[in-house]
Amino acid sequence: MSLVARVSVNSAPAVNSSYVVRPSGVHGYGAFATRDIEIGEVIDEFVGERLTHAQCDERYKDRDVNDPHTFLFTLDENTVIDSSVGGNDTRFINHRCDPNCEPQIENGRVFIVAINRIRQGEELGFEYNIGREEDDPDNVDEIYACRCGSPACRGTILWPAKRSRRRKRKSNSGIPTSAI
């Protein structure tokens, strides 16, 4: 059954009953399961105003580069969903390096789907995979630091995780070799 059909069949009331928003130790506010959520269950749809990338860039051109809050979801090469305008509480689902849900796109719609069994009270989280840009500020990894607390935490919500700079080291033979 398609995600759209599953949402239609299992449509939730106006206030989503599978999660609630409250303060989070990860970042600001977070979404927490109000009941057990099974693998494959559609939790909600990520909605908001649809913009082109150029419109999005124009809207946020004066944004403080040190502000890590983002309510944007890149749908494809043409479209960004800005959940700060016309969005719902899915915008409060924080990044996790060990996600328990993930966005799945079907027919131009974004559904948040459980990829692990989520226990009541557990915070929902998915991989943001925010791409690095050539013009990122030097402190971009501090701005987008991850606080998920997972043993698998890579320290950033950006992708790829920052690679260490290549440096020269001497091999046992005395000939310099590249090391990461």
Quick description:
With 180 residues, this protein is mainly β. It has helices spanning 3-9, 53-59, 140-143, and strands at residues 19-23, 29-33, 42-46, 49-51, 72-74, 80-82, 94-95, 101-106, 109-114, 125-126, 130-131, 158-159, 167-170, 176-179. The strands form six sheets. It has a three-stranded antiparallel β-sheet, covered by helices on one side.
In the CATH hierarchy, what is the superfamily?
Answer: SET domain
Give the fraction of residues assigned to helices. 10-25%
- Coarse structural class: mainly beta
Helix segment tally: 3
The name of the CATH topology is Beta-clip-like
Rough shape? globular
CATH architecture: Beta Complex
Task: Give the mean pLDDT.
Answer: 83
Distance between the termini: 46 Å
The figure for the number of domains is 1
**For this structure, what is the CATH class?**
Mainly Beta
Q: Please give the number of β-strands.
A: 14
Biggest sheet, open or closed, and with what strands and sense?
3 strands, antiparallel
Strand content is 25-35%
Radius of gyration, Cα only, in angstroms?
A: 19 Å
Uncertain segments are: 8-14, 163-180
List the quaternary state of the chains: single chain
**Main sheet: strand order:** 3-9-8
Order of helices and strands: HEEEEHEEEEEEEHEEE
